[in-house]
Amino acid sequence: MPYEIKGLNEECGIFGAWGTTEASHLTYFGLHSLQHRGQEGAGIVVSDGQSLQQFRGRGLLAEVFSNESDLENLKGTAAIGHVRYGTSGNNILANVQPFLFHFHDGDVALAHNGNLTNAASLKRELEDQGAIFQSTSDTEILIHLIRQKKDLDFITALKQSLNQIHGGFAFVLLRKDSLIAALDPNGFRPLSVGQLDSGEYVIASETCAFDMIGAKFVRDVQPGELIMINKTGLHIDHYTQKTKLSICSMEYIYFARPDSIIHGVTVHNARKKMGRLLAQQAPVDADMVIGVPNSSLSAASGFAEESGLPYEMGLIKSQYIARTFIQPTQELRERGVKMKLSAVRGVVEGKRVVIVDDSIVRGTTSKQLVHLLKEAGAKEVHMRIASPPLRFPCFYGIDISTRSELMAANYTVAQMRQIIDADSLSFLSIENLIAAIALKDAQKAPNGGLCVAYFDGKYPTPLYDYEAGYLKSLKRQQTREVIG
Ligand code: AMP
């Protein structure tokens, strides 16, 4: 099976609220601040204590809930919600979450952020046993696994099912009597619990959702945990004790919002430190530092502070364009960069510019940025990347593409510099990345509690369905390198 199994990836934002008549509105606002985690679809399921009701659609949250009545009609005291970031080919309504199932013994809804590494084989097994899937998403697998265990109570069935799936997953589930959250044994994806002043609990992919609704942070969901919120309060349980934190470093580098706090680390501060360490590691004799709005501004400010160079606004971002990476084809992606960013001639003309970006994936953005800046008169353009070269794909829920598309998997740094036409190019080292994030409670864990597999190819778990295809593709690549 090729490892490039597209259409099973989910990279999303999830939210849940319990015990408040404002449930669907709180979920809407929570999702609004998680919109950066997915713009392809959004949905909310609400519970009135008896049955569950759903509203979902394709597009941005505000496009999906475009009439006031869409939210008003979702009356209830508990809700879960989802914003979806899928990959090309599966942007269909059937894949928009939360998924809602009406069983004879009650309704269940679920929403998922992550990617399962044994989804394809589980799906095949389940279909052989008669299961009928509604979507092409891996999320649905969990519900089929739970329903297979008819003789067990829901929580026991859920715990056993969570032990059957592998990969990166953060789930929220809603039933008429409880809101449930679960995180994979490596805690690849962030998930936190918050509390409103009035005492009710909420769950969110990122803490920025709590700030939006006036909730205070209670705790991060830990790897292997199963958290249940019901009328008697918050209950913390485990479905496995075999856990090892390796949270995705790309959350800190690019994906999460700078104001979120993940495992005690403010994302902005981590990015700023990445910029500082990068300036120490690869200093430049230049006139100014500029960042690529918005995801690189924190790192650029750190680079400027450390190097003593002025921090300037040399690039302007249109506020009315979604992330370029989301565009499915390379042609659209290239046009997307131009629509999104413009250089400020009056700032960069005749100047030696250091431009800091958070990462290079396919190289589309960097190439165009250098071109934009030179066209606007920059004398020299030095590219500094606040993460190590992305050489390996992610199997746990970040769309880091296939190896064939990753620029750093196919070219040396010197070749990349040439291709993007920069005067110099440097990346942050893996050691400095780990030092910049510095998770306090995980200092002694491998890689300081982070997953850095995109940079070193050392995956913290077996790759299951992806293993054979991935190894084959690596071999193909090595053969090409030897021949070439
Ligand atoms: P590229 O143009 O393909 O090299 O993409 C690089 C840009 O995409 C970077 O400037 C990042 O801000 C952004 N980026 C990095 N990783 C991801 C990701 N997994 N999903 C979407 N965008 C990303």
Topology summary:
Layout: E1 13-18, H1 23-32, E2 41-47, E3 52-58, H2 61-64, H3 68-72, E4 78-84, E5 99-103, E6 106-116, H4 119-128, H5 140-148, H6 154-162, E7 167-175, E8 178-183, E9 192-195, E10 201-204, H7 208-213, E11 216-220, E12 225-230, E13 233-238, E14 247-248, H8 249-255, E15 261-262, E16 265-266, H9 267-281, E17 288-291, H10 297-307, E18 311-312, E19 315-317, H11 330-340, E20 341-343, H12 345-348, E21 352-357, H13 364-375, E22 380-385, H14 407-410, H15 413-420, E23 424-427, H16 430-437, E24 450-451, H17 453-456, H18 467-483
Parallel strand pairs: 14-24, 17-18, 17-21, 21-22, 22-23
Antiparallel strand pairs: 1-4, 1-10, 2-3, 2-4, 5-6, 6-7, 7-8, 8-12, 9-10, 9-11, 12-13, 15-16, 19-20
Helix pairs in contact: 5-6, 9-10, 9-16, 11-13
Residues 254, 292, 295, 323, 325, 357-366, 398-400 line the site of adenosine monophosphate.
Pfam families: GATase_7, Pribosyltran
Protein name: Amidophosphoribosyltransferase
Function: Catalyzes the formation of phosphoribosylamine from phosphoribosylpyrophosphate (PRPP) and glutamine.
